[in-house]
Amino acid sequence: MSGMGTGIVIEEPRQKVFLVGVGRSGTSLLQAMLNAHSEVFFLPETGFFRKYVVTGKISQAVQQHGMSGLTDCLAKDARIKRLGPDLIGDIEKQGLLKDSADFEVADKLIYEFLHKSLHEGLHERITGDKDPKLIEHIDVLKSLWPTSKVIHIYRDPRDVLLSKKKAKWSQSQSNFGRLIANVAQFSMAAKAENKFGRSEIHTVRYESLINNPQSVLREICEWLDIKFEDRMLAHQKSAQELVFKDELQWKSEVLGPVLPSNTGKWQKELSTFEAEWTAQSCAQAMEAGSYESRAGNSAINRIKVLPLSLLVVCAAKLYTLYRSTSNCRLLRRLGN
Fold first, then answer.
1. Using CB atoms within 10 A of its CB, is residue 191 exposed (0-12), middle (13-18) or buried (19+)?
2. How far apart are alpha carbons 33 and 37 in whole angstroms?
3. Structural domains present in the chain
4. Which pLDDT tens digits describe the chain residue by residue (336 residues)?
5. Please, are residues 224 and 17 in contact by the beta-carbon 8 Å criterion?
6. pTM of the model
7. Residue 26 and residue 32: Cα distance in Å, rounded?
8. Exposed, middle or buried: residue 317 (CB in 10 Å: 0-12, 13-18, 19+)?
9. Interatomic CA distance for residues 195 and 189, integer angstroms
10. Which helix (H) or strand (E) holds 88?
11. What secondary structure does DSSP assign to 111-144, as a single string?
12. 321: part of which helix (H) or strand (E)?
């Protein structure tokens, strides 16, 4: 049983798992593989926690406009609408938002109900939520759901940069912004792993996953206390359930077979400057993954990018501080 702090108690008999990572690090592939397991159920990526629980958007709308505020928020969200069920109608039937105390944490109540209602009647005992950017909120997740587990997948940051340059959703970003996100998010995940330990947070190296998927998936299954199933290696059908048409531009590879060659593309497609800048800035991830620098990079090239790398690291530290502070405010708002 999970107490919500508002007089409402929602059954939570299943193990909750969050799948996070720096964007373009393989979260969609791993989600499809895990979802293929008979005891694991993942919703398609909705971003609900990040968009609504973190911001308090629904709570504010409900406090100001009642149920019509809820309708206005969710009716405009294509990712929620495509899930199919009449979520708003179900919320009204269940009487989730009974009084003003419920309105203050409406986002969290609805997030819980969304997962519970879509899992209704299913036998899977593990329910998962995949959202790469939840890597910035691991402390919050563990505070709200102390028994939850987190899987963090990471990838060579140079391949991450290259992939972000190609993905439609991130093409408008600058390399500076992309690198700040990588440095800050990896740092937050590493800090959380040190805090909660490996029994609570499991780290996966993307390159290991695509080169030896069975071994990596067996490790994850053992960590989750479930038996490995061969069907996890044939993840394509599972991917079709999770990926929607508007996501195909950056998720289409998930629908095909695992490609061991999908690594090291940065060596041909990034400039020497971009590769060295990324390697210097993302030193923590480079060391964690034992990623080698480009052979032949001269001392002159390394010196050229040093000021920019230092700027990225400093900006990432400021962003990490901001996120830590905002997470503390979020937990206070939610009564934790």
1. middle
2. 7
3. 15-39+123-333 (3.40.50.300), 43-122 (no CATH)
4. 233 333 333 445 589 999 999 999 999 999 999 999 999 999 999 999 999 999 999 899 888 888 888 888 888 888 888 776 577 777 777 777 777 667 778 888 889 888 887 777 677 889 999 999 999 999 999 999 999 999 999 999 999 999 999 988 888 999 999 999 999 999 999 999 999 999 999 999 999 999 999 999 999 999 999 999 999 999 999 999 999 888 888 888 899 999 999 999 999 999 999 999 999 999 999 999 999 987 556 676 788 899 999 999 999 999 999 999 999 999 998 887
5. yes
6. 0.92
7. 10
8. middle
9. 10
10. helix 87-94
11. HHHHHHHHTTT---SEEEEE-GGGGGGHHHHHHH
12. helix 299-333
The first and second tokens of residue 160, run together, are 């991450």
User: First and final CA of the chain: distance in angstroms?
Assistant: 16
Q: Residue 173 carries which DSSP code? A: S
